[in-house]
Amino acid sequence: MIYLDYQATTSVAPEVADAMRPWAEERYANPHSPSRAGREAAAAIEMARKEVDKLLGLKGGHIAFTGSATEAINGALKGTVEKARRAGSKRNKLITIATEHAAVLDSCEWLEENGSEVVVLPVERDGRVDLDRLEQVLDNRTLLVAAMLVNNEIGVLQPVAEVAQMARAAGALMLCDAVQAYGRMEVPRGPDLVAISAHKIHGPKGIGALWMRKSAEPAPLIHGGGQEAGLRSGTLSPALCVGFGAAAKLACERVTRDYDHVQKLWLAASHALGVGWTVNGSVHHRYPGNLNIRREGLDGARLIADLRDIAFSLGSACASGSGRPSHVLKAIGLDYREARSSIRLGFGRYTTQKELVEACERIAAAAYAQEKLDA
Ligand code: PLP
């Protein structure tokens, strides 16, 4: 199989699997227990936390491990609203963007049903938010602005540093979903809360983290043993934390090399696909490991069925699973036919140029065959 679905998930790096193995097998002590084995597990978790934090590279805050980035985002949004409510704050407005991940949009919708005011900003045709529109809706009732750095479907970058600066000037907090950027490119300074996930950087599934600026910590939503400084109770998994740490350490060592590699792959893929394809979203403001393209008349779902040994996607993994048209493609102004004719190729560290070119040539040939058949 040629794997071109790096936005959905990534393989576990061999170094990560090696680091996790002892903690999944014989080193099973509870990291919150005072026994010697427990303290050793706790120490391994703290080492991992340092690596995860170092790769993020932000100052003045700390990391709490969560079960996923989805959990980190839910906790950041709902916990911030809860904290403001308890403090009797008049700030009750959340601002976000139409192309955010469902973890953000659905949490905002839930919060709206429960009394928050929510503003969802549209994006331009290139997938970027218009900062003038943001300026218009930011006010002294705004509690938080949520903006992702790299879009999971179209790879477009939002101006996160500017959004964070504007939010701060209005006295609001800023949450950045950095899941698709973390370990692949630099995360700008400015956000108060940052959600990340291990399985997008060749770490294990089932673990994410929330970085919180000091004093921007949300109220806890999960109560119990008081782990993670009371923010997120529940026994941590040393194997998952150590795996996340090992993946972060590896990414820290390789981030520039990986990015250069991905840039070369983008050029090779674009060349191998040939003419007749249009890139969805900005070509300039994007992460190059995401090639979301469309072709007049193409049936993307049929293409995926025709090329079963190439793993690629229609929109985001969740959007394709549900059969719903992608809210991101819709937000950038694509109609149903254009969205249906869009595919997403995602590549990264372990993709070779040879396999990518082979896949792109086969995709181009299958698309051409479809055209002939339908003509
Ligand atoms: N945000 C973005 C941009 C994502 O791509 C994903 C995963 O697809 C998530 C959030 C959710 O991450 P997790 O799978 O860790 O819950």
Q: What is the SS-derived class?
A: alpha/beta
Low-confidence stretches: none
Strands of the biggest beta sheet: in what spatial order?
A: 2-8-7-6-5-3-4
Amount of helix: 40-55%
* C-alpha termini separation: 30 Å
Bound molecules: pyridoxal-5'-phosphate
The number of distinct β-strands equals 12
Radius of gyration: 21 Å
What is the mean predicted local confidence, pLDDT?
Answer: 96
Describe this structure in words.
It is a single chain. By secondary structure, the protein is α/β, with parallel strands linked by helices. It is built from 12 helices and 12 strands. A 7-stranded mixed sheet has the order 2-8-7-6-5-3-4, with helices on both faces. Strand 3, helix 4 and strand 4 form a beta-alpha-beta unit. The longest helix has 36 residues. It is globular, with a radius of gyration of 21 Å. The two termini are 30 Å apart.
